[in-house]
Amino acid sequence: MFPVNWDELAWDNVSEGLQRKVVHGEALTMVLVRFAPGLTTPGHTHSNEQLTHIVSGTAFFTVENAKHELRAGDMLHFPPNVRHGATAGKEGLELLDIFTPRRDEFPASAKIEK
Fold first, then answer.
1. Over the stretch 50-101, which tens digit does the pLDDT of each residue have?
2. Distances from the Cα of 102 to the Cαs of 26, 46, 49, 71, 105, in angstroms?
3. Which of 80, 108, 91 is nearest to 35 (CA)?
4. CB of 67 within 8 A of CB of 95?
């Protein structure tokens, strides 16, 4: 393992207003995500368990039929296969997602080598 500094990784443009940096471990994936103000990600599901930590800004999540407003320092847990989506507040949003098992379909911004 070696140290990884988020500031040294380039942002990958996922779509208009959505950027990410991806680091894979052996059994998990961490993704730093930046949303433009007001950007909405459509509701979706995946088989990975997910923890989301709000780094900065405000997030409005819909999880199944429940609504949650989160601010910097808040976290939210998504069990596998639970429908969820988010909208960034007017100041934009940066969050850190942690997935297990790994999200191998996300291209890595850095390689963790043994």
1. 999 999 999 999 999 899 999 999 999 999 999 999 999 999 999 999 999 9
2. 8, 12, 10, 26, 9
3. 91
4. no
What span, in angstroms and rounded, lies between the C-alpha atoms of 8 and 57? 22
At 4, the pLDDT band (50, 70, 90 cuts) reads: confident
Contacts of 65 (CB under 8 A, 6+ apart): none
67: which strand partners?
A: 62
Answer whether the bond into residue 80 is a cis peptide, omega within 30°: no
How far is 53 from 21, CA to CA, in rounded Å?
15
Which phi and psi angles does 8 have, rounded to 5°?
-90, -5
**Cα 96–54–14 angle (5° rounding)?**
45
Find all residues with CB under 8 Å of 66, minimum gap 6, and list them.
none
